[in-house]
Amino acid sequence: MPAAQRDDKRGGVRPQWTVYLGTLMTDTAFPAIAAAIKTTLESQGFTRLVGATVVAVEPGVVVMALNRRDEVLQQNGLFHGGVIAYLIDNTSTAAAATVIARAERSVLTAEYKLNFVAPSKGDRLTCRAEGEEKLVAVALATIAHVDRLKG
């Protein structure tokens, strides 16, 4: 199995994103780190443009979401793949940022692979990413649609 994948609890393969880091986060109080990460994400122009929100920032975990709006849909009424990729990119990079010494290093997505396994027709996309404490961190993201449309 490629290094960029691992088995999930159901026996399937879940993608991973590699984010290169420096040393691990140690003594900084986490509430300040969470606030800085949230501010950074919410101040990005593209985040504001697509209307994404930061739902949670915890040690090793970030959750972002995006409500269904015409501006983020493609021609068939599904969430646009670029918007889905954006959520995965920002959420997974931010999750990795929760486990590093931010005063010494920053994070940047080096690579990710995205497989679309079903159309995203719900009213809201939610992306949860988990960062692992490694020199070269791996942030694992799962994106799901919730509140499926009727019909």
Describe this structure in words.
The chain is α+β, with helices and mostly antiparallel strands. The chain has a single domain, classed as Hotdog Thioesterase (Thiol Ester Dehydrase, Chain A, Roll), CATH 3.10.129. 25% of the residues lie in helices and 30% in strands. It contains three helices and eight strands, in the order E-E-E-H-H-E-E-H-E-E-E. The chain has helices spanning 30-43, 45-50, 81-97, and strands at 5-7, 13-15, 17-20, 52-58, 61-67, 109-111, 124-131, 136-146. The strands form two sheets. It has a six-stranded antiparallel sheet with strand order 4-5-7-8-3-6. It has a two-stranded antiparallel sheet with strand order 1-2. It is elongated, with a radius of gyration of 16 Å. The chain starts with a strand and ends in a 5-residue tail after the last strand.
Q: How is this structure best summarized?
A:
The chain has 151 residues and is of the alpha+beta class. 25% of the residues lie in helices and 30% in strands. The radius of gyration is 16 Å and the shape is elongated.
Write the layout of secondary structure elements.
Elements: E1 5-7, E2 13-15, E3 17-20, H1 30-43, H2 45-50, E4 52-58, E5 61-67, H3 81-97, E6 109-111, E7 124-131, E8 136-146
Antiparallel strand pairs: 1-2, 3-6, 3-8, 4-5, 5-7, 7-8
